[in-house]
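User: Could you check the structure of this?
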Amino acid sequence: MRAYPGMAAEIADEKLLTLLKSGSEEAFVALYRRHQGSVYRFAFGVSGSQTLAEEVTQEVFTALIEGNHGFDPSRGTLGPYLLGMARHLVLRSMARDRAHVPVEEATGEGQSLSPASPEDPQAALARKESIRSLHKAILSLPQHYRETVVLCDLHEMSYDEASAVLECSVGTVRSRLHRGRTLLLQKLKGEKGVEGASKAIEPKRCLI
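Assistant: Sure, the predicted structure tokens are below.
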């Protein structure tokens, strides 16, 4: 069976993977469009590096198209699995490079932090600065708190989904998220005050 333009978007991930194995370019395009954004944002949110996020995203989808991904649908869905792949690649790269990535790279020119908004320029600037402060605070968290906050608060994943990505128990996810949010509040209070800091860490899909 061949996937045709417009049809692939209706097909489940597992079926698209089967079509991909048979050489369907449309199946790959559908999978890429469906999952590329979340893979990139996760890698970017955890590493703070646009370059690393791009490299990791490319590696994840190269493995997908080459069939070297090891995905087992009986153990979960494809989205969290791809984020798990991205996580291992990010941690491997960060351990290898052991280089501090300036927040300026994470929020530099050309990097879209949020969808276009009809806000007036002053409000848009304030929003951008708020996102920048949040991202800076997230990047300052220890890695295990950082990735949990990115998954649960920025990607709005459930505890079960996050536990699959992080390869830990749901209880561990809850504990890390609670501690990560507490640390974020402490870091943001000085800039925004308690109320502003609390609002800054509400779930914000696609901000990074």
